[in-house]
Amino acid sequence: MVYHTPQGETAALRDLSFSVQQGEFIAVIGPSGCGKTTILSLAAGILKPSAGKISVREGVTFGYMLQKDELFPWRTIEKNILLPLEIKKTNTAENRKKALDLAVKYGLGDFLKSYPDQLSGGMRQRAALIRTLASDPEMLLLDEPFSALDYQTRLNVCDDVYRIIRSENKTALLITHDISEAISVADRVLVLSRRPARVVGEHELKFPREQKPLHRREEQSFSGWFELLWRQLNV
């Protein structure tokens, strides 16, 4: 992927190749500015690659979760969650029920008539995830979704998001600059080089899927994984 500006060309990605299997949770880490978010934009079809190709199984739909919750302050949590259905013109009674049932299932039932500024940062991010799930995407693209939260909230929300994604049997591709976060949620971690980015490491973690991210951090092997990824990231 090459970006063109009046000042010249910037190669963001080169010779980059990897795959994501159905049901996997993949985390991608890399140096700042190496093109991590570009990968999500390419996967979602927002950008077209300068060369090469992106293959997606027919019928796969995507949900994109941003760094900030981006909830509309003038809409209630219920109306924010239903926004994707309105945009896609699939705002049927059945689809509304499915989306709002998810909200109730994951602890937002008492806040549906509230406005975003009445919720904590963690609750807002949970609402943002339910909004992303409202249109029932098969694959979630997560662009550092916890980075705007304070550390304690971040740990709790990470547990929430992981539980919801696993419970709903979604495939996920997470971009993060946080090594610990990547280890705590992923089935595999991909390590990128400096720009133009390519994959320089691929690691299958083999933690039990049912294990909470917070509990992974307490495992003996956690520090070993952190050291390995830190070294590879800073080559």
Describe the structure.
It is a single chain. The chain is α/β, with parallel strands linked by helices and 235 residues long. The chain has two domains: 2-60 and 138-233, Rossmann fold (3-Layer(aba) Sandwich), CATH 3.40.50.300; 73-137, no CATH class. Helix content is 37%, strand content 16%. It has nine helices and eight strands. The protein has helices at residues 36-44, 77-81, 83-87, 93-105, 121-133, 151-167, 179-185, 213-216, 221-233, and strands at residues 2-5, 8-11, 25-29, 62-65, 139-143, 171-175, 188-192, 199-204. The strands form two sheets. It has a six-stranded mixed beta sheet, sandwiched between helices. A two-stranded antiparallel sheet has the order 1-2. A hairpin with a 6-residue loop joins strand 7 and strand 8. Helix 5 (121-133) packs parallel to helix 6 and helix 7 (179-185) packs across helix 9 (221-233). The longest helix is centred in the C-terminal third of the chain and has 17 residues, at 151-167. It is globular, with a radius of gyration of 18 Å. 33% of the residues are buried. The mean pLDDT is 92.
